[in-house]
């Protein structure tokens, strides 16, 4: 795919594009899932050392941090972050760089994210014309397992203190050469729930002899959908999605137990509070109305990803200089998808952007077995990181 003429690539990123493509294809072919990114981390660490950065490994188990000092003195420090992990998906692509690890695939573009940040690190190391310190964070286990939380718990920001932290994700459906960002919520929180309904099993022909948890579960499924529509302010947003239901194993037996599982998404902690409380109440009272009982497990996995205003405004300016103001979406509709970069944004101000990846169809869809990152984005993403680092750590601000 051709890079639009409106994009003003960093010349060094443009020259590095073929090498970055080679790195990206290697990473795509060797995907590793949450906290198993040993080969990926070793690849990243080796590259960073070759570029001349100081390297720390093993943060949050398999995370890597590279540190680069600007040639000009300065007290400021910032961090740029990329995720490294893959998904448990069997790839269906037939190209040469398809996954060689069965049941594992880079179906979300983290191979591209890692490559773009590696490219920026190489470019900045060759010409560190900035004042202060840059940390590049390569994070494990973004998918489901909270690698950002683990790195923070392992002392990430104590060992590498920064005033701000920045991230990006490729975004199918947003045209190549476009960037979307907004202050405030960018992506939703990620909660999970499990409701176990306990009744009294019986012969299916004699339901009056038991307490039917299947019927209770059916009523609870519909009752849960009243939470967004009847328990929240109309301008607040939440998604309550039951995704799994199990009970019984034959036609003529009403089981004693039925289990429901699902996910909740929101943009505000206050909304999460309401949803959790109402879900517990509905589960317990609905079960009781059928002579059953309910036990509820509710976990808050990821908070919402919330950009801070000042940092978002600065990133918008950098993005506009790169792709053109007409190609910036300053107010995209937030996504209920979740991102554990949210944990870093709760610790430090910063901004998370979406980088246009092209049409959201066929193999371009995230978490699709035919997905492949758009290599045309490698030079764009690396150019953005280089420009952002220099904007945040300007040489003229040296003290």
Automatic annotation (TrEMBL):
Transmembrane segments: none annotated. It comes from the Bacteria. Pfam families: M20_dimer, Peptidase_M20. Residues 193-287 form the Peptidase M20 dimerisation domain. Keywords: Hydrolase, Manganese, Metal-binding, Plasmid. InterPro entries: Amidohydrolase, Bact_exopeptidase_dim_dom, Peptidase_M20, Peptidase_M20_dimer. The Mn(2+) ion enhances activity. One of its GO terms (biological process) is diaminopimelate biosynthetic process. Mn(2+) binds at residues 108, 110, 143, 169, 367. One of its GO terms (molecular function) is hippurate hydrolase activity. Its cofactor is Mn(2+). Its EC number is 3.5.1.32. NCBIfam families: amidohydrolases. This is Hippurate hydrolase. It comes from Azospirillum lipoferum (strain 4B).
């Amino acid at each position: 795919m051709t890079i639009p003429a409106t994009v003003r690539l960093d010349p060094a990123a443009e020259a590095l594009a073929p090498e970055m493509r080679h790195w990206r294809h290697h990473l795509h072919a060797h995907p590793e899932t949450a906290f198993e990114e040993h080969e990926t981390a070793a690849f990243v660490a080796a590259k960073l050392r070759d570029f001349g950065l100081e390297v720390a490994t093993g943060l949050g188990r398999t995370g890597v941090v590279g540190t680069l000092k600007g040639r000009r003195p300065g007290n400021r420090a910032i961090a740029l972050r990329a995720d490294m992990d893959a998904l448990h998906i069997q790839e269906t692509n037939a190209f040469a760089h398809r996954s060689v690890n069965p049941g594992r695939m880079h179906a979300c573009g983290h191979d591209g994210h890692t490559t773009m940040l590696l490219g920026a690190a190489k470019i900045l190391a060759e010409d560190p014309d900035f004042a202060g310190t840059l940390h590049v964070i390569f994070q494990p286990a973004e998918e489901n397992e909270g690698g950002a939380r683990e790195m923070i718990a392992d002392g990430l920001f104590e060992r590498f203190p920064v005033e701000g932290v920045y991230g990006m994700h490729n975004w199918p459906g947003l045209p190549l050469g476009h960037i979307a960002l907004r202050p405030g919520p960018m992506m939703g929180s990620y909660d999970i729930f499990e409701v176990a309904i306990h009744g009294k099993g019986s012969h299916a022909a004699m339901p009056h002899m038991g307490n039917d948890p299947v019927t209770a579960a059916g009523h609870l499924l519909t009752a849960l959908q009243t939470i967004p529509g009847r328990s929240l302010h109309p301008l607040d947003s939440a998604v309550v999605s039951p995704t799994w239901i199990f009970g019984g194993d034959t036609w003529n037996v009403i089981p004693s137990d039925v289990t429901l599982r699902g996910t909740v998404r929101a943009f505000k902690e206050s909304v999460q509070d309401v949803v959790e409380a109402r879900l517990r109440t509905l589960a317990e009272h609905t079960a009781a109305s059928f002579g059953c009982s309910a036990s509820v497990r509710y976990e808050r996995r990821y908070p919402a990803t919330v950009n801070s205003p000042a940092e978002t405004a600065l990133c918008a300016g950098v993005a506009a200089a790169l792709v053109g103001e007409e190609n910036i979406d300053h107010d995209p509709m937030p996504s209920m998808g979740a991102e554990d970069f949210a944990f870093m944004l709760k610790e430090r101000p910063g901004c998370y952007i979406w980088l246009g990846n092209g049409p959201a169809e066929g193999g371009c869809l995230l978490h699709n077995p035919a997905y492949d990152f758009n290599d045309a984005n490698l030079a764009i993403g690396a150019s953005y990181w280089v420009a952002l680092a220099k904007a945040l750590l300007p040489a003229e601000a040296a003290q």
